[in-house]
Amino acid sequence: MKILLALQVFLLVTLMRVAQIKGIIIRHTQKTWTMEIVGVDWNITNEDLIAVDLKIEQVSRTSYRFSGTIDIRYELTEDSMFKLILYRSATGNADRYQLLPYRIEKTQFYDFLDEYYKGFLKEFETCSNFPVIKTKARDYKFRQLYRFDKCTVTNDPMPNYMPEGYYKVIMQFSGETDWSLTFVVQVESKRQ
């Protein structure tokens, strides 16, 4: 029995090595996809505390810019929370989106900024008045009107491979008031 198990392991390892040599197991070292933002929406429970007005425009095939404002009229605290949820649909039909396992669980907004600022938000420092965070997010005040002027959305910090389809990215903010931003992104494979 042990000999049979050892033989199975040996064959499996050998097949995996051959598959890697022949290119059957693919590791993507470059982006295999492009994205196009096809929609943005928001939901606000208290318009006295938050106002959003964003518009998205396509600049080129892989470059997108958005302009508009987010007016935060309350100060963020330790009770201010953030959560990101991701859905995918092959067709983009509203009733065909399926929840994906990729998410950022509910966390303090300050901790979210400390963790993800460099990857996702740092690019806004040249096109908006969003604070350049050099220390910890808790050192900054966020109650103000944020202006975004042709900010670029990049896929650089994202995975090298993503299946084609439509992705719905929902960012939920909670605390003194609840509000959310929803972006719909179409992902297509790069044409060779």
UniProtKB/TrEMBL annotation:
UniProt key word Signal: yes
Swiss-Prot/TrEMBL keywords: Signal
Signal sequence coordinates: 1-23
InterPro entries registered for this protein in UniProt: DUF1091
Xref: PANTHER family: CHEMOSENSORY PROTEIN A 29A-RELATED (PTHR21112:SF0)
Name of the protein in question: Uncharacterized protein
The species this protein was found in: Glossina brevipalpis
